[in-house]
Amino acid sequence: MICTMERSTDTILGYTVSGDMTKADYQTLVPAVSAAIDAQGSVSVLFDLTAFRWEKVSAWSDDLNFGKQFKDKIDKMAIVGDKKWEHQLTKLAQSYYANEAKFFETDDDAWNWLAG
User: Fold this and answer.
1) φ/ψ (deg, to 5) at 79
2) pTM summary value
3) For a surface tag, which of 29, 58, 66, 114 has the fewest beta carbons within 10 Å of its beta carbon?
4) Domains and CATH numbers, the chain
């Protein structure tokens, strides 16, 4: 499940991902990111994965399409988590989802980096 964080702005979009990410989650995420990019030209994104478990197989193509559609329009992507594999995911994020990606252990540090 994906939820928009209250701290989101026009240019910095924050999302909390919990449990399993599904195809329906991308049907929420993609239009929101697309609208922000249409309005602003580019955005930065924060994904808090501390309660994330995994992504459903049925959502994998949506995940790949997200990267294909938005990679050049996402300036920075912050990944917040508490597991080693989430830290490794940041390397993938920089290659496929954003111009720059960085891992954080706290939301506050991630927001500060995105705003800076």
Assistant:
1) -115, 125
2) 0.90
3) 58
4) 2-115 (3.40.50.10600)
Tell me which residue has tokens 């500060």.
112
pLDDT tens-digit series, residues 50-60: 988 877 877 78
> Are 51 and 18 spatial neighbours (Cβ–Cβ below 8 Å)?
yes
Task: Name the residue among 57, 28, 64, 66 with its Cα closest to residue 15.
Answer: 28
Q: What is the pLDDT of residues 5-48, one digit of tens each?
A: 999 999 999 999 998 999 899 999 999 999 999 999 999 999 99
Query: How far out from the chain centre does Cα 97 lie?
Result: 8
Indicate the pairing of strand 2-4 with strand 12-21: antiparallel
Q: Which two tokens stand for residue 4?
A: 């928009």
